[in-house]
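Could you please review the protein record set out just below?
***
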Amino acid sequence: MTARVAVLGGTGKTGRAVAAAVRARGAEAVPLGRAAWIDLAGALAGCDAAYVIAPNMHPDEAAYAEAVATAARSSGVVRLVHHSVASPYVPAMPHHLGKARAEDVVRRSGLAWTILQPGAYVQNFARRSDITLAYRAAAPFGFADLSDVAEVAARVLLEDGHHGATYELASFRATVAELAAALGSTVREVTPEAWARGGGAGLEPRVRDWLLRMFAYYDRHGLPVGTLPMRALLERPPRSLATLLGDGAG
């Protein structure tokens, strides 16, 4: 019987990539967007597993995860994979803490769970001639390639042996300055105050505040992420910066 996998948040870039990777492994992917929440248990009916991607900067990701877990249990889903973030328990970043709380919900769900914690997507910076940062460009990061993350997601959704596992994921390590130089992009550093008056001016105040806190943390510490878990799960080298540049960085 062909496995059936629901992808919550399936209309976004991550959801589309995960759904494509699931199909590439011969399974059926069921992308679910906002409309599915009218009857989430019904939308999940017949699915063996669910991949959970909360909306970006969700105000209460724990409640979101609880709703999905409840619907999954009632509809017979047995495997739940939660898309979290690298270093979720960082008190200085509220949206990371939200993911840490959601992870706690998933771990107590009674389902066969796995948690993925990807670093910043390299695709967030690709194909941009000018990159504006409200933190120092020399901060260290572990960048995750979206297709690598999607391939790992498909594996843990469809293979046994990942129940109870938490995997931090990065394809390569670099600074934004190094990434921009390789891409031929120009980096412009601005103060957080200037960003708040410019690019952040139209955002909801809560989201703007959370992003400013994130920038402050990045400025001090970056977001380093190890690459060994990605390599082990893929059973091949993750995509390197040179590889990404060679095919247009996604």
Observations:
- The two ends are 33 Å apart (CA to CA).
